Amino acid sequence: MRRRTRSCVPALAGVTYNQMVVDELSEAQVDRIFQALADTTRRDIVARVIEREQSVSALALSYAMSFAAVQKHVAVLEQAMLVRKEKRGREQIVHGNPEALRRAARLLDAYEDLWRQRIGSIDALLDENTSTD
């Protein structure tokens, strides 16, 4: 059973947004996703493994950092459910999770809708003030 302490997108009186998008992710999940995507290397890893699955060893060859550092980046992405690892023999194969990226995109879309509604309300107030002058 999933517990939610508060919604990811704040509710405003008279403003509507897609509640289904908000209910998909807990605050902790949202934090993990965006913290994971805040790093350039992790974004690059996600792009690479969405295009084609790769072993952690193969990923490590692409970066000027230690194997352990790449492993840590992959672990952060795995905790955010942006990738998953599969053990094949002695290797850990990393797969992208496009659905997690779609959920993050839907959340950003919900924020955009919220801000567009706020801008619309401000525009209406300005128009109202202009017409009474």
Tell me what the structure shows.
The longest helix is centred in the last third of the chain and has 35 residues, at 98-132. It contains 6 helices and 3 strands; from the N terminus they run αααβααββα. β2 and β3 (91-96) form a beta hairpin. The protein is mostly helical. It has a 3-stranded antiparallel sheet.
At a glance:
With 133 residues, this protein is mainly alpha-helical. It has helices spanning 19-24, 27-37, 40-51, 56-61, 67-79, 98-132; strands at 54-55, 83-88, 91-96. The chain has one domain (19-125): Arc Repressor Mutant, subunit A.
Question: Which features would summarize this protein structure in a list?
Answer:
133 residues; mainly alpha; 3-stranded antiparallel beta sheet; 62% helix
Low-pLDDT windows of residues = 1-7, 9-18
Mean pLDDT: 84
Q: How much helix is in the residues?
A: 55-70%
Total domains: 1
How many beta strands in the DSSP annotation? 3
Tell me the number of helical segments per DSSP (H or I, 4 or more residues long): 6
Biggest sheet details: 3 strands, antiparallel
CATH class: Mainly Alpha
Q: Cα-atom Rg, whole angstroms? A: 20 Å
Q: Sum up the overall morphology in one term.
A: elongated
Strand content: 5-15%
Please write out the topology.
Elements: H1 19-24, H2 27-37, H3 40-51, E1 54-55, H4 56-61, H5 67-79, E2 83-88, E3 91-96, H6 98-132
Helix pairs in contact: 2-5, 3-5
